Amino acid sequence: MFGFGKTSPLTVADDGRIRARFLVQHAGFRLDVNLDLPARGVSALFGHSGSGKTSCLRCFAGLDRPQQGYLQVAGECWQDSERGFFLPAHRRAIGYVFQDANLFPHLSVRSNLEYGQRRIPATQRKVALDQALELLGIGHLLERMPAALSGGERQRVGIARALVTSPRLLLMDEPLASLDIRRKQEVLPYLERLHEELDIPVVYVSHAPDEVARLADHLVLLDEGQVRASGPLKETLLRADLPFASEDDAEAVIDGQVCGHDADYDLLELSLAGSPARLRLPHAAVPPGRAVRVKIKARDVSLGLHRAEDSSLLNLLPAAVDDWQVLGAQVLLTLRVGEQRLLARITRYSFDQLGIHAGQALWAQVKSVSLLAP
Fold it and tell me: Strand pairing of 169-173 and 202-206?
């Protein structure tokens, strides 16, 4: 058999993608996935408990060996069952962050980080210790022991330890699941910084929709060990054939750019690509020019044929009808606002009264906007 004694990756053509094919059969469970993911940004594996998210991640890491498998990461082949090649976990250039930080309790923060760094020869280190400390905001914790850290601090140290191994791929298995809401809000901005400042692809497992909406670029929906959908986050959330759009809390995620702040009313103003409209929402000041991500729920969008001049709603956006789906007594519409798309849920009665048709110009009246990435 080819490659059983080989302890380094095989070089393959680098097409800027992560390609994975895993077939794992256990008693009562079968994982059968074929993934084509971007080799930059955050790809989220999303699904209910038991859908195969963690099993898939363990295959990426080499902790589980599928009966059939192939894995290519940005120009390196880590396994290919057809050729009998399997790179063991300790030879894969991965960083793995678990639900629990799993720090060595007898070592200080500094020693925990240095332990991770020693896995990589100095000549191959791409993420310096000082860089990881700054990105995760933990420089002041170096001499503390894990028992003296909060849950959020421990998880940030765990992420930093994964980073100083200079991974080609960062795997995160529900890293915020064990934290309360306050600690999650503490850690999320640091995860966003990793996204913005490091060119390391991340495969992120979560069952929390808000985490996925805030962090992910690419979304994979897993169900009973199979891929139900895979694609760019904003497009996948709008797909009518998926449960995201048909559920009561259906929402769209759009990108904006901070263009102003009204200090008298504490309102943040955002511009939208390709649209003259502005979004305004109650929020503290954010530096002008900052790219932000917001979500708007379909149930918070009503429609009008004309711009309401006497409405209490802050956000009245010119929109065009893209598509719609009848859901019983309601209709879910996809609207185009500039270069982006929103969802609106209205009754079939209102749909008929407004004479909705493809391409129709309307005003989207937005009741509530939530900032995901300040």
Answer: parallel
245-282 confidence digits (pLDDT tens): 777 788 999 999 999 999 999 999 999 988 888 999 99
**Strand (E) or helix (H) holding 340:** strand 340-347
Asked whether the predicted pLDDT for residue 339 surpasses 60, the reply is: yes
Q: Please state, in angstroms and rounded to a whole number, the distance separating the CA atoms of residues 275 and 279.
A: 11
| Residue 255: CA count within 13 A, CB half-sphere | 13
Pairing assessment for the beta strands 218-223 and 42-46 based on DSSP bridges: parallel
DSSP 8-state code for residue 189: H
DSSP state of 164: T
Quickly list H helices, 198-332: 209-215, 233-236, 243-246
Strand partners, 293: 255
CB 246 within 8 A of CB 239: no
CB 23: neighbour CB atoms within 10 A? 17
Secondary structure element (H or E) that encloses residue 320, with its range:
strand 315-327
Specify the long-range contacts of residues 311-316, CB closer than 8 Å, at least 24 apart. 311/365, 313/365, 313/366, 313/367, 314/267, 314/280, 314/281, 314/366, 315/277, 315/279, 315/280, 315/281, 315/365, 315/366, 315/369, 316/277, 316/363, 316/364, 316/365, 316/366
Q: Is the pLDDT of residue 3 over 70?
A: no
Asked if 92 and 78 count as a contact pair (C-beta separation under 8 A), the reply is yes
Torsional class of 289: left (φ above 0), alpha (ψ -120 to 50), beta (otherwise): left
Cα–Cα dist 119/315, whole Å:
52
Alpha helices in 85-237 (DSSP H): 109-117, 129-136, 151-163, 181-197, 209-215, 233-236
Helix or strand (DSSP H, E) at 26: strand 17-26
In whole angstroms, what is the distance from residue 155 CA to residue 356 CA? 50
Q: Who's near 179: CB < 8 A, 6+ residues apart?
A: 151, 152, 155, 186, 187
